[in-house]
Design brief:
The chain has 403 residues and is mainly α. Helices cover 74% and strands 1% of the residues. It is built from 17 helices and 2 strands. The N and C termini lie close together (9 Å).
Length: 403
């Protein structure tokens, strides 16, 4: 086994298992932790030891990072807007939240730069995943085995939390029950084209048990739709559904919240027995976030991060404005056009579960999702190339892997 293959294997185990089994060890203010430092060691190793290729289509993401960094550094002139956005939050929100007193929902410049660093890390993991698959397709088996071990580990921790510590909604080694759902969905998507029936049954049992213990409504809904989509495997329908999901997410999160907030709350009260958390989100979206959007629709809060947007749409829109959101939509649109079942499903869950949760952009779960996206993207490109150029190249690829 060569040095590069060993590094690739260690990185896969780190991203898909190691980063989740130990609690975060904060450094300084808590914006950087040990896991991030290890990730950056891998990043520097990959970029110095390998020729990491960045396609021209993705240069816009690099431009976005540079542009937002400049905006954040020079964002002191919008402090008045952030102050206004804090002031319009109703007292009802603070009474309902009740966990801790929050006086400023918009983070200072340094912490906002750290959020931009997190986004940069996600992009870099995506690029590394692309290049790992270019070198060998055998890493998929290692990735799936690691994810299976991760689900088993989460189940053991959840059992202890639920039955010993009496925690109603156990969260495993993660900090949010919805993160368990994200790991489950990524694993199901990646294993969907495998022939190992026993592994699929094991994943299904682990997934259903974890979903039952975590008891998260959005995870239940996402799991059900995901299983239906994988059963029919209609790529054209998946593409339409992904676009529709984003459109509905944007429409409900932004326009409906502004115009029909009370009607939506009433509807969810009928569908679900408790819409408390949704009401809490709508109060924030329709007051503070709307204040930012009305005054600075294109640039948002000039890159200034929020405490918890609780929506993948508002995560981009409130901090980076319409321009930032459109850059990501362009990026995802390019990936969707590849007609890949895995890529479409990964983007679908990003927007579907992202209606009330933005964990797909929060480490460490975000690293795993972007890694899976990079692997699936490159796998689809390779298969499309084989389809267009015959099987001779596939034979050469296998020979190079065995070497």
């Amino acid at each position: 086994m060569t040095y590069k293959v060993k590094i690739n294997n260690i990185f896969i185990i780190f991203i898909s298992f190691g980063i989740f089994i130990f609690p975060a060890l904060p450094i300084g203010s808590g914006d950087i932790n040990i896991e991030q430092l290890i990730l950056w060691l891998f990043i520097f190793t990959f970029f110095f030891k390998n020729k990491i290729k960045v396609e021209k289509k993705f240069l816009l993401l690099i431009a976005f990072i540079i542009f937002e960094a400049i905006l954040i550094i020079n964002s002191s002139h919008i402090e008045w807007l952030l102050h206004e956005a804090n002031n319009v939050i109703p007292n009802k929100w603070h009474e309902m939240y009740g966990k801790r007193e929050i006086t400023n929902f918009y983070k200072p410049i340094l912490q906002s730069l750290f959020q931009l660093v997190h986004i940069t890390e996600n992009f870099l993991v995506f690029f590394i995943a692309k290049n790992i698959y270019q070198k060998s397709d055998s890493h998929n088996n290692l990735l799936l085995n690691s994810l299976s071990c991760l689900l088993l580990f989460q189940l053991l921790v959840c059992f202890i939390q639920h039955f010993v510590l009496k925690i109603d909604r156990p969260y495993g080694s993660l900090d949010n029950t919805q993160n368990i759902g994200i790991i489950i969905f990524i694993t199901i998507i990646l294993i969907s084209d495998r022939d190992n029936i026993l592994l699929k049954i094991l994943i299904l049992i682990l997934s259903l048990t974890l979903l039952y213990l975590s008891n998260t409504k959005s995870a239940y809904a996402t799991f059900l739709i995901l299983v239906i989509l994988l059963y029919f495997k209609n790529i054209r329908f998946m593409k339409y559904l992904t676009y529709l999901t984003f459109t509905m997410n944007f429409t409900i999160s932004v326009f409906f919240v502004i115009l029909f907030k009370d009607a939506i709350i009433s509807f969810f009260n009928i569908v679900f027995t408790n819409s408390f958390s949704l009401n809490l989100r709508f109060l924030m979206w329709s007051t503070s976030f709307l204040e930012i959007f009305n005054n600075s629709p294109f640039l948002g809060a000039y890159g200034r991060a929020t405490e918890f947007p609780d929506s993948i749409i508002w995560y981009f829109l409130v901090s980076y404005g319409i321009i930032g959101l459109l850059i990501f939509i362009y990026f995802f649109h390019y990936l969707i056009k590849l007609n890949s079942i895995k890529v479409n499903l990964l983007i679908f869950i990003f927007f579907f579960q992202g209606f009330t949760y933005y964990g797909y952009m929060l480490n460490p779960v975000s690293y795993l999702w972007w890694f899976a996206l990079g692997i699936s993207y490159e796998e689809t490109k390779f298969k499309n190339y084989l389809f267009n150029h015959g099987t001779l190249l596939h034979t050469r690829f296998k020979i190079s892997n065995s070497e």
